[in-house]
Design goal:
By secondary structure, the protein is α/β, with parallel strands linked by helices. It has helices at 11-17, 26-33, 37-51, 95-107, 124-138, 153-162, 175-178, 187-199, 216-227, 257-270, 287-295, 315-325, and strands at residues 56-66, 112-117, 143-147, 166-168, 203-205, 208-210, 235-240, 275-278, 300-302, 306-307, 310-311, 328-329. The protein is built from 12 helices and 12 strands.
């Protein structure tokens, strides 16, 4: 075999790459995806260790506060009214039920509680209830997050005044692939909501879904959109498509697990100070793949048996995995 020269990245160059104001081209990000696996992992670990405790993981619990009947046609979503995934429509939970769920999550070790509602955008009546939920969960001493669809300026101000810490609004995929997945709103709608959230002074939580049939350039395009926000999101959930029967993407080909790990590593390199979260799809991942994701720079995960309408590993299983890896919840270090 012919000898090959292996290029290592100097600490000086690494520090330059960690500059949050760097502009990443899609080509540059695609080149990261194409690095030899060991080189990519080494580079991601360098970035991760510069900014975080490499053995601490932030635990977030997600609760569906209003389920089903969404008027958006997202091809991956079992809650869309366009899809026939068998999800039963449920009205919004009351504040007491949300607080009970948040307290249970806190008792299990979660420090962030996210409330998700299946609708295109909240009504005035909806917002009044959500505001009370945010205040109540904050009263438990937890970080709060909400994902409620598109927001107008009034919505954003209400959430800011209630003390919401994070607003989640995923970009899902690259702009050029977006229309293949969703047709009821465009990419700019998502960017506009995120800009409103940022102007209001709340933290942004935004990521995407891999394994929806996108190619590597489109996967790089998603990361470029996120990494080039000024500033990039503080929280970046990376979802592995859960193929739900009755949705248009139910027969999509499986993504190679190492390609998912590569996505985590590239997100870490391009957004060095973000919390990169393992989100949907963990129930289908082996512990080995999840361990590689942590090695690639993931330092947050959704925690609890249910993610909106899809399953998630149970708390005992996750605790056992973290113990096996010598990892611990971020909340226990503070």
């Amino acid at each position: 075999m012919q000898n090959q020269t292996v290029k290592f990245f100097s600490p000086r160059k690494h520090q330059d790459l960690a500059n949050k104001n760097q502009v990443w081209s899609v080509a540059d990000i695609e080149a990261l995806f194409q690095l030899p696996f060991a080189d990519l992992m080494f580079r991601a670990q360098q970035v991760h260790r510069e900014h975080f405790d490499p053995n601490a993981v932030q635990l977030s619990t997600l609760l569906s506060i209003k389920t089903g009947g969404c008027s958006e046609d997202c091809g991956y979503c079992p809650q869309s009214a366009f899809n026939s995934a068998g999800v039963e429509n449920q009205k919004m939970l009351d504040v007491a039920a949300v607080v009970q769920a948040a307290q249970a999550a806190k008792d299990s070790g979660a420090d962030r509680f996210c409330m998700g509602a299946a609708w295109r955008e909240p009504s005035k009546e909806d917002m009044a209830s959500v505001v009370e939920m945010v205040k109540a969960v904050r009263g438990l001493g937890m970080e709060t997050c909400a994902t409620l669809g598109m927001l107008n300026d009034e919505n954003v101000e209400q959430l800011r005044a209630a003390g919401l810490d994070y607003y989640n609004h995923n970009l899902d995929t690259a702009p050029e692939f977006y229309g293949d997945i969703i047709t009821t709103r465009d990419y700019q709608d998502r960017l506009d909501t995120l800009e409103r959230v940022r102007r209001a002074g709340m933290h942004v939580c935004s990521g995407g879904i891999v394994g929806m049939g996108e190619n590597i350039t489109q996967r790089a395009g998603l990361i470029a959109q996120l990494a080039n926000m000024q500033p990039y999101p503080e929280s970046v959930p990376i979802n592995n498509l859960v193929k739900v029967e009755g949705t248009p993407l139910q027969d999509t080909a499986e993504i190679d697990p190492l390609d998912f790990v590569r996505t985590i590593a590239v997100a870490r390199i391009t957004m060095p100070r973000a919390r990169v979260r393992l989100s949907a799809g963990r129930q289908q991942m082996s512990e080995t793949v999840q361990a590689l994701c942590f090695l690639a720079g993931a330092n947050s995960m959704f925690y609890g048996e249910q993610l909106l309408t899809t399953g998630n590993p149970d708390v005992a299983r996750d605790r056992a995995m973290l113990d096996k890896l010598g990892m611990y919840p971020f909340a226990e270090t503070h």
